[in-house]
Amino acid sequence: PYVSIFFGGWQWCYYGLFAFFVTGRSGFLILVQSNALGAMLGSFYIFTFFRNCGDKQTQGSLQTYLTVVSSLVLVQASALAVLPSDRALFLSGLVASFCSFLGALSMLVTVPAVLSSENSRSIPGPLVT
């Protein structure tokens, strides 16, 4: 969920700024204001986690997630280079919306383990409550 918070925050900030520049409507800047703190704190968390995590398997999982994030950034940069700005903006909005949806679903990743072990300790309580 923390990679989701990190990427979702930056993605919505990017979309808000991009939409502001394309449309000239200042209402899109609320997306930047409302997501900037999550983007910065998510970045801090990912950086701190990566520096202090000693488990190679967990570091590998983080690197896999960050590779997916990098791929999405590359797709959007490519779209910005080859598509008209309104189409690139639409794609950016789709990516932001899809990532928010996946972020909400990321809370459910531990449900199979909870059901098989009949123990709910793996559910991230502060994020769910």
Tell me about this structure.
The protein is an all-alpha fold and 129 residues long. It has six helices and no strands. Helix 1 (2-23) runs antiparallel to helix 4 (85-105) and helix 3 packs antiparallel against helix 4 (85-105). The radius of gyration is 17 Å and the shape is elongated.
Which characteristics define this entry?
129 residues, mainly alpha, 0% strand
TL;DR?
By secondary structure, the chain is an all-alpha fold.
Question: Which percent range describes the beta-strand content?
Answer: under 5%
Average of per-residue pLDDT values: 89
Q: Mind describing the biggest β-sheet?
A: none
Q: What is the percent of helical residues?
A: over 70%
Structural class by sheet pairing and helices: mainly alpha
The total count of strands amounts to 0
Rg over CA atoms, rounded to whole Å, is 17 Å
Low-confidence stretches: none
Number of helices: 6
Outline, from the CA principal axes?
elongated
What distance separates the N and C termini? 14 Å
Order of helices and strands: HHHHHH
